[in-house]
Amino acid sequence: MKVNLSQATFIIPIRIESSDRLRNVITTTAFLLENFDTNIMIKEVDYQSVFEKQAIPILEEIVEDDIWKNFDFNFEKTNEPLFHKTRILNEMITKADTDIVISYDCDAILPKESYKIAYDYIVNDGFDVVYPYGHGMYQKQVAATDEVVSNFLDKNDYSYLNSVSKIHTSDFGWMQFYKKQSYIDSGMHNENFKAYAPEDKEIFHRFKTLDFKVGRIDNYVYHLEHARGENSWFSNPHMKSNMGEWEKIQTMNKQNLLEYYSQQEYLKKYD
57, 118, 234, 240 - which has most CB atoms within 10 Å? Predict the structure, then answer.
């Protein structure tokens, strides 16, 4: 039986730059479709759609149910080489119809029980954001292969992921469960961050500084490893300005943050 997460939408922005990234997005999407009664939005931003041509046919073949029941896919054509993830997340989240939104990386999977615990923290316990993995040695880096993920999906057995994983540190990335209105009230993701950036650290810092109710689950996150280019590593040409933005924000108190975000130009398009 699928786990009921019907009041949540998984928000998954993607750019598929390597074969392992393609395998990862197929794996995570199939896992979500097979195991949860929920909503999924995927938006691909690139010069051509890899997901439509290569991922969708496989998903339609391996997922038992109709994948389009609560699944929405959009493609945005661009010649911009860098992936403006913060903008794409904001545009997707504001369009979601559910009270809970889950900012979700296409390379991450949780133990199944963690999804429900994080969801219930918001529905029943009034949390504004939940980090569904621990802070510390809670990342399982998975050296996935086609055979490993195929067995994992077919048998729904995490031992296949565990067999090729090693423990590493975790902090603020991968995924967050948000109360949608709290996300909007916080100023959303800071669109001054472009491509690879400390946006995950910054929004955690902001939620804490602004006294939102922040939760965390002390359990593992499985990170499916992948090749890294400018959009997922420090070689990003915007890294200097990204780090300058982060350093500036860290000096602000609650009132400073409220004033700073009330003046951000990017927020005007969401009014």
Answer: 118
Q: In the predicted model, what is the mean pLDDT of the chain?
A: 94
Domain that holds residue 74: 3-270
63 sits in which H/E element? none
pLDDT of amino acid 141 = 96
Helix (H, G, I), strand (E, B) or coil at 210: coil
Is-above-0.90 flag for pTM?
yes
Which CATH number do you get for residue 118? Answer: 3.90.550.10
- Residue 24: closest CA among 225, 163, 175, 159: 225
CA distance 176 to 101: 8
Q: What are phi and psi of 190, to 5 degrees?
A: -75, 110
The residues, ordered by sequence, that sit 6+ positions from 246 with a Cβ below 8 Å of its Cβ are 193, 197, 198, 201, 202
Instruction: Provide the pLDDT for residue 81.
Output: 87
Bridge partners of residue 36, in order along the sequence = 3
Total structural domains within the chain: 1
